[in-house]
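Case study 2.
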Amino acid sequence: MSQKNPLQGMEETTKTSTLKSMSASAREGKRRASLTLDMSVNVAGIHLKNPILAASGTFGYGIEFEDIVSLDKLGGFVVKGLSREPMAGNPPPRLFETAAGMLNAIGLQNIGARAFIEEKLPALRKIKDIVVIANVYGYCTEDYEQTIRILNEGDGIAAYEINVSCPNVKHGGMTFGQDPALLAEVVAGARAASTRPLIVKLSPNVTDIAQMARAAEDAGADAVSLVNTFLAMAIDPVTRRPRISNVTAGLSGPAIKPIAVRMVYEVARAVQIPVIGIGGISTPEDVVEFLLAGATAVEVGTANFWDPRACERLVNQFECWCLEQHIESVAGLRGGVIIG
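Prediction:
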């Protein structure tokens, strides 16, 4: 009588288990392949193929990234802030890396609205299937209005993002984004001048961000984006001098993400208009967090400094995440956080 190999049963069990695992993996692969994922979202009437935008100030005028980023893969991008006249910005140093973030005080350096529509926009129009949003700022309501009227002449701009983190020189330097009345004033002026949707970019340096969002909505904003950078400072212990020539600067990057998520959550429940989330986004899970908090789309900023292809990478990674989680519509994630 032949003796049974004591390992034979284990081998057969292992083979059976492996075959079952391979079969389950194949079934899952087929299921993912059969899923129809709708990545598109709608912000203020603007169709975006996916919810990932490149943030203003981190992506130049867009055209500079054409050779390294497939611009048509992004949901869209917001160009560097534009003013009525060209501006040189602040003297260096104006960038400083911090723990999990970055300080910047560029000083809104730009070529001016007229040069943008004459020199940059024609090249952008040659690229098919892209969404271009122009960021606008000024030091008084008239600045915003005049800049928008210049940009109205250019074809190929989907919307305006109004930067209200600028000091109003006619009101003693009070920042538009810190006073509801001043915010309403600039938004109403921009609304009257604009032929396109208005997105108001809110400052986080306020006591009640929801109040500011409501003021923007009541004055005619079609959407709000938040948050802009946090006012911050760094000092060199050896020289005892500020790290930034402007002394204070704006803090961005992963360090601010939890605060930004909280503010997006509060604003999304305070207004009826779409919310675009901004603040420290660098992974697909970060994108999901903002959407669950109530954002319709997101803007990716500081990550572009350490990886110029961050936005395109995130689009691909976010799509994979959605397929792995069996998500059929990205729009369905909005506001899906479970409380209690």
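The chain has a mean pLDDT of 91.
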